[in-house]
Amino acid sequence: MKLAERMVISFCGGVSASTAHTWTTLSGSGAHDVRVMTRKSIDDPGRPPGIVLSAATSFWLPVPPKRVFDFLRDEQSRNETIGGNQNNMLILQESCTDSTGSYVIYAPVDVIAMNLVLVGEDPDYVPILPSGFYILPDGPNGHGGELVEDGPGGSLLTVAFQILVDSAPNAKLSLGSVATVNNLIACTVERIKACVAANSA
């Protein structure tokens, strides 16, 4: 429970801009602007050491938020959109929804580290880099503000990734790393659009 809470806090902090960490907009080849930000992770037991690249974009889907939320929180759907699970890794996921919005946040966690947490070790020392989705309703909600499966509204979806691009904290960020993350975001957006459209048909 504590690890999941820390994951959500880390995700929100990792994709929030500040005066020290500002977003840069990339002029992408697609219809969506991708924003990127870098941070150095040094002496933080809860994050892997090195250069962390955060990337995010937002786009509209002609699908009600509940359907988008249900799709993204499903492990099989997530594997279709962002790739399968890595060896020796588990996926920790936290999701929440209400009438004002929803999120699905996840992070790969080393199996050995997760086993240590399960036997009572301190979860604050498990390095995680969460990624995830924010879903906001665009249009009217159901009766009493509840999310509905079908309806006239759509969804505004934000996709955000945090990726360790170099394990040396003093390394320079390469243009290749930025291009790779930009491509990852663009491919994820297209896969989500295609999968959600197919599930809505």
From TrEMBL:
Domain HD-Zip IV C-terminal: 1-80, 84-196
SUPFAM superfamilies assigned to the protein according to its UniProt record, in alphabetical order: Bet v1-like (SSF55961)
Pfam families the UniProt entry points to: PDF2_C
Matching InterPro entries: HD-Zip_IV, HD-Zip_IV_C
Protein name: HD-Zip IV C-terminal domain-containing protein
Organism classification: Eukaryota, Viridiplantae, Streptophyta, Embryophyta, Tracheophyta
